[in-house]
Design goal:
The chain is α+β, with helices and mostly antiparallel strands. It is built from 18 helices and 23 strands. It folds into four domains: 95 residues, no CATH class; 383 residues, Aminopeptidase (3-Layer(aba) Sandwich); 130 residues, Immunoglobulin-like (Sandwich), CATH 2.60.40.650; 38 residues, no CATH class.
């Protein structure tokens, strides 16, 4: 909940904010936890101008901006709260939300102690003792789900181990460690690096014997896709890069489970798995294993305690989402060199094994002769000039500048990359950092396409499509993937809290993101192009089954008004392009083949008024309907695809329905009347009376026999 009353604003406090920024005070990034472990606060700070908002979002980690109420909300520890108040900011504690968070912490996270050591470590839910957090799987449970799905759907699922985490790289099998087995288990490694005061907050029996590796689950109809000349588009998710964010990892898993469980019963699920491939990577299993046992559940970074040894577990380590190479250490405020800061970038780009493993999986390996990345989950669609023909994508290689201005081909068909986060209800896209080489702004050459995708998704999940949260973020996943490959790349900040209750997750967070990913799956074939056209939904075949040779009624809603536009809020951030709603020109149905497949034949559908249309935009939302001739279709289930086209001749998303055809009833053919050969005829010439009498008797017998058959 949000506080409803207006907070008074001290005079000219924006001057204080500006001074704080100039002095280098990223509040949430530099203050370790102090005081009682349960002291997490939900705070609200009002703002009166764009400058105020700009400064606030730079001070607060993952802030949620309510532009209507003109407030900024965040979750902070006691040290962070103290620093904000020292700066003279009008901080108001949201008492109700603070109480909910503390109840969440007290009842669940870190309260998993059992009377005896767990014989299956890592397989408990985040909270086995209460329903508020029991919906979130641990790393061990997620990986168990990977394997269970692969066993259940062997033709649709593959699981792969990508590599070791930082802690996994330190681990040694028992008996092989020359240093008294200090590296021979997860627990021994924690004892080696963390003080007893921190270890006492964990139930050490719940850690696995050795650190989990980085694994990926891939879902798709491999047999069908491998038989096609064109490679399928891919949706690549990374989840849990910031360990304390529980909801994103669960959303990714549940969406893949929905696809698989509904493949036989939902036409869109079948279309998606037949057409696309879905990759879900658990990015930071070390950090997540800590966060699952951490009382305050505030672990953000990985567990590289050798590089960043700090007083608490959560302060140590490297922020993996500041460790990616494209734009790492650009010289601005996008990350920190303070080892104990929450956004510590690491000693070098790709210094962390987790970063290297995921980057290698997504982009593949560099082929200098072809001047492109090959073999990754997403193909390279960003052309390289001779100047930038090198694996670093830098001017003439070496230490030259990155290529910030070359865009991907609008025909890019490789898919989309999404890094799943909590908890600002926002869809962010590249660039996340301003550079003088790019006229000191954040816009990419593909800005229209990137913004349109985000605004279409935002219609479905009701998030803010705003490109950045108000502060620079250098060295991020999305900037690296877009920078190297040109693939549409996003950070989706889901939910309202790091401490999202299961009730809210099930009622709001998962359904709204399911809708967004459902839409994205239906435009994945050409993600820069298809969102420029209308969204087609609710494809229905009127009859449960139709007889072969008859006609079936198909209906659908075709809507070009499905955008959600958001202003950036900050004056120094360019506003995204404003969507232009277009009239629907036509809609086509296809039986058995997608619109872009060879041999696909579009069947024109009639357009009529829709009760879903907005006043004044009636021609932008239409009902499409028509009759499908089933002549020549074999009995069984067929796929029907519908796609709308707007007045700019832009085709949009595709939606599907099953057409069940049953065989026509078997009809026993009439026995033909045999010609009378008159074998009893005695001689040539005219028939005499005997011949005529015998013929009459024969015809009468045939007629009688036919009547009996009827």
């Amino acid at each position: 909940m949000r506080i409803s009353h207006r907070i008074s604003r001290p005079t000219q406090w924006s001057i204080v904010l500006a001074a704080a920024i100039a002095a280098g005070h990223p509040v949430s990034a530099q203050s370790p936890d102090t005081g009682d472990w349960v002291q997490v606060y939900s705070i609200v700070v009002p703002y009166a101008s764009d400058n105020d908002l700009n400064a606030l979002t730079r001070l607060l980690d993952h802030a949620y901006v309510d532009q209507k109420a003109r407030t900024v909300s965040a979750e902070v520890g006691p040290g962070e709260l103290a620093q904000l108040r020292m700066l003279g900011l009008p901080v108001q504690i949201n008492e109700a939300e603070t109480a909910r968070i503390r109840d969440y912490i007290t009842k669940g996270v870190g309260k998993q102690a059992s009377s005896a050591p767990d014989t299956t470590p890592g397989t408990k839910k985040i909270s086995d003792g209460g329903s508020h957090a029991a919906c979130y799987r641990t790393v061990g449970q997620v990986y168990s789900s990977f394997d269970e799905l692969a066993a259940k759907y062997p033709k649709l699922v593959k699981v792969q181990t990508l590599g070791k985490t930082w802690m996994g790289g330190q681990y040694r099998q028992p008996g092989t460690d020359s240093d008294n087995n200090t590296n021979s288990s997860w627990v021994n490694l924690l004892v080696k690096y963390l003080p007893a005061s921190v270890l006492n907050t964990f139930n050490l029996s719940l850690f696995p014997t050795e650190p989990y590796p980085i694994r990926v689950i891939v879902a798709g109809n491999f047999e069908k896709q491998d038989a096609q000349a064109q490679k399928p588009p891919n949706m690549v998710w990374t989840g849990g890069i910031h360990a304390r964010e529980y909801a994103p990892q669960e959303v990714g898993m549940k969406y893949i489970e929905w696809l698989l469980d509904n493949y036989e019963t939902d036409a869109n699920a079948r279309m998606m798995l037949d057409t696309n491939r879905y990759h879900f990577v658990v990015h930071n299993p070390d950090g997540r294993s800590i966060a699952e046992q951490q009382i305050t559940a505030r672990q953000r970074k990985n567990t590289n305690y050798a590089t960043a040894a700090c007083s608490t577990a959560r302060s140590g380590g490297v922020d993996l989402n500041r460790n990616y190479p494209f734009g790492w250490r650009t010289g601005g405020p996008g990350a920190s060199d303070n080892q104990c800061a929450e956004d510590y970038r690491g000693t070098a780009a790709v210094s962390e094994p987790e970063t290297q493993v995921v980057l290698d999986y997504v982009r593949g390996s560099w082929n200098q002769a072809a001047c492109k990345w090959e073999g990754g989950a997403l193909p390279d669609g960003r052309p390289k000039s001779a100047t930038y023909c090198n694996a670093q994508n830098r001017d003439n290689g070496g230490a030259g500048e990155f290529d910030w201005k070359t865009g991907a081909d609008e025909n890019y068909g490789g898919g989309v990359f999404i890094d799943l986060h909590s908890a600002a209800r926002a869809i962010l896209w590249s660039w996340g950092v301003r550079r003088s080489e790019n006229e000191n702004n954040i816009q990419t050459p593909n800005n229209l396409g990137l913004a349109t995708i985000a605004q279409r998704m935002a219609y479905h999940n009701k998030y803010s499509a705003q490109q950045v949260l108000g502060y620079d973020t250098e060295g991020t996943t999305k900037d690296a993937v877009y920078g190297y490959l040109g693939a549409p790349s996003y950070t989706v900040e889901m939910g309202r809290s790091f401490y999202e209750s299961c009730d809210n997750f099930n009622k709001e967070v998962y359904p709204e993101n399911f809708n967004g990913f459902h839409y994205l799956s239906r435009v994945l074939y050409r993600p820069y192009q298809l969102p420029q056209g209308p969204d087609t939904v609710d494809v229905k075949i009127a009859a449960e089954a139709v007889q072969a040779g008859t006609k079936a009624l198909v209906t659908a809603t075709v809507d070009d008004n499905r955008y959600l536009y958001s202003k950036p809020g900050q004056s120094d951030i360019p506003a995204p392009p404003v969507p232009v709603v277009k009239k629907i020109k036509t809609a086509l149905a296809y039986v058995g083949k997608l619109p872009w497949e060879a041999g696909a034949v579009g069947i024109p559908l009639a357009l009529s008024a829709s009760d879903q249309a907005s006043p004044g935009l009636e021609e932008a939302t239409r009902t499409a309907s028509g009759m499908l001739d089933t002549t020549g279709l074999a009995p069984g289930r067929h796929m029907v695809y519908v796609q709308g086209i707007n007045e700019d001749d832009k085709p949009g998303s595709v939606s599907a329905a099953f057409l069940n055809v049953k065989a026509a009833p078997e009809v026993t053919p009439e026995q033909p009347v045999m010609p009378i050969a008159f074998p009893f005829r005695r001689s040539g010439g005219a028939l005499d009376l005997v011949d005529l009498a015998l013929a009459a008797l024969g015809v009468a017998g045939l007629v009688a026999a036919r009547r009996r058959r009827r």
